[in-house]
Amino acid sequence: MRALIEEFAAASLTPRQLQERAERTRAFLDSEFGHQLTEEDTGALRSKMREAQAAHRHRLGKSGAGSGEAA
């Protein structure tokens, strides 16, 4: 169990890494498409991603795929 937790922690991004990724994404969108994300845009995108993740988890739960039981 400890190895699994350590593996998950190693794969998780730190707050600083998340911020750096967000800044790179904003710079890319600006340079490639001339689009500058506002805080409102960012909030809307976060909300959509949370909704999509919740819907995915719900579908997994209904199918039994997310139950953790072996098939």
Gyration radius, rounded: 17 Å
Overall pLDDT score: 86
Binned strand content: under 5%
Number of DSSP-assigned strands: 0
Poorly predicted ranges (pLDDT <50, ≥5 residues)?
none
Helical content (DSSP H or I, runs of 4+): over 70%
Oligomeric status of the shown chains? single chain
Q: Give the overall form.
A: flat
Enumerate how many helices there are, as a single number. Answer: 3
Characterize the main sheet: none
Distance between the termini: 21 Å
The H-and-E topology, N to C, reads as HHH
Structural class: mainly alpha
Secondary structure topology:
Elements: H1 2-11, H2 15-33, H3 39-63
Provide structural commentary.
The chain contains three helices and no strands. The radius of gyration is 17 Å and the shape is flat. 0% of the residues are buried. The protein is 76% helix and 0% strand. The longest helix is centred in the C-terminal third of the chain and has 25 residues. With 71 residues, it is mainly α.
Task: Provide key terms for this protein.
71 residues, mainly alpha, 0% strand
Would you kindly provide a brief summary of this structure?
The chain has three helices and no strands. The protein is mainly alpha-helical and 71 residues long.
